[in-house]
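stage 2 :: seqdesign
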C-alpha cells in the first residue's frame, strides 16, 4: 500500500503542480471543476444519495462554481463581498460546526443537511483555489503546508504513534502524528523565511506563522471530518480512483477545510 501511495504521488503531484503554475486561470478553474465533480460524486455515495439526488447535487455544485466565477471576477464592490461571504460561511462551518459535529459524534442522515454540508465543503474550496492561483507561487506555498503536515503526520504516526487522537473517528491518527505535523510545518515556515525572505509573500511575515498553525490544525480537522463521514457510511475510502490513496475526496479533504480560510486571511493581510 505504501509503494502504491508513493508511486501515485510521484506521478500525479508534478502534473498537478505544473497545471497550477502554467495553466491560465480559466484553464485551472476548469481542471479543478472536473476534479470537484469527481469529489462531489464520491460525497453523494457517502451521503447515500440516490441517482436523481446525485445529479441534482452535482448540477448544483457546477452551477454554483460557474456563478461564483462570474460574480467575483470584477474583484470590486459587491463582488468582493460575495467572495468574503463564501469564505466566512466556510470558516464558520470548519471552526464552529465541525468541532461540534465531531465532538458530539453526530450521525446525520438528512439528505438536505448532507447536501448543504457537501456544498460547503467543496464550493468554497474550489473558489479559494481558483482565486489564489492568480498568484501561483503563493498558492503552492500554502498547499505545501497541507502536504508537509500530511506526510509528517503519516510517517511520524506510523513510527512513534501510541496515543490515539480520535479513536472513534479515525483510529489510525495519533497525537504523535499531530506533533510531527506541527514540527514539520514550523520547519517549513522557517525554511521559506530563510530562502525567500519575509517580503516574498504576506504570510511569511511574523504574523503569518499564525496562519501556518491554523491551516495545519484545520487540515487535520478536514481529514478527521471526512473519516467520520466515511465511518457513518461504512466505507474505508471515498472511492478507488487513486491507487494507495482511495478516492479524490480522500486526497482533497484537508484542502477543502484549509484553503477557504487561507484565502480569507489573505484578503485581510495583503
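stage 2 :: out
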Amino acid at each position: 500500500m505504501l509503494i502504491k501511495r508513493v508511486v501515485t504521488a510521484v506521478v500525479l503531484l508534478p502534473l498537478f503542480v505544473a497545471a497550477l503554475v502554467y495553466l491560465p486561470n480559466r484553464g485551472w478553474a476548469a481542471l479543478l471543476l472536473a476534479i470537484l465533480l469527481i469529489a462531489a460524486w464520491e460525497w453523494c455515495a457517502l451521503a447515500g444519495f440516490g441517482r436523481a439526488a446525485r445529479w441534482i447535487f452535482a448540477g448544483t455544485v457546477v452551477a454554483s462554481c460557474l456563478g461564483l466565477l462570474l460574480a467575483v471576477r470584477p474583484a470590486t464592490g459587491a463582488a468582493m463581498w460575495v467572495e468574503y461571504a463564501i469564505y466566512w460561511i466556510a470558516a464558520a462551518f470548519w471552526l464552529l460546526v465541525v468541532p461540534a459535529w465531531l465532538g458530539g459524534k453526530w450521525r446525520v442522515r438528512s439528505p438536505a443537511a448532507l447536501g448543504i454540508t457537501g456544498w460547503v465543503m467543496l464550493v468554497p474550496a474550489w473558489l479559494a483555489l481558483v482565486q489564489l492561483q492568480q498568484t501561483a507561487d503563493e498558492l503552492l506555498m500554502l498547499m505545501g503546508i497541507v502536504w508537509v503536515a500530511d506526510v509528517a503526520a503519516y510517517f511520524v504516526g506510523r513510527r512513534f504513534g501510541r496515543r490515539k487522537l480520535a479513536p472513534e473517528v479515525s483510529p489510525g491518527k495519533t497525537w504523535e502524528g499531530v506533533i510531527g505535523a506541527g514540527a514539520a510545518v514550523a520547519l517549513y515556515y522557517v525554511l521559506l523565511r530563510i530562502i525567500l525572505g519575509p517580503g516574498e509573500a504576506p504570510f511569511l511575515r511574523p504574523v503569518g506563522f499564525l496562519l501556518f498553525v491554523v491551516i495545519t490544525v484545520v487540515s487535520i480537522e478536514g481529514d478527521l471530518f471526512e473519516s467520520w463521514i466515511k465511518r457513518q457510511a461504512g466505507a474505508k475510502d471515498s472511492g478507488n480512483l487513486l491507487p494507495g490513496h482511495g478516492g479524490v475526496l480522500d486526497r482533497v479533504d484537508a484542502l477543502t477545510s484549509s484553503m477557504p480560510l487561507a484565502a480569507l486571511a489573505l484578503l485581510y493581510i495583503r
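stage 3 :: structure notes
- The chain has one domain: 2-269.
- The beta strands are 164-166, 170-174.
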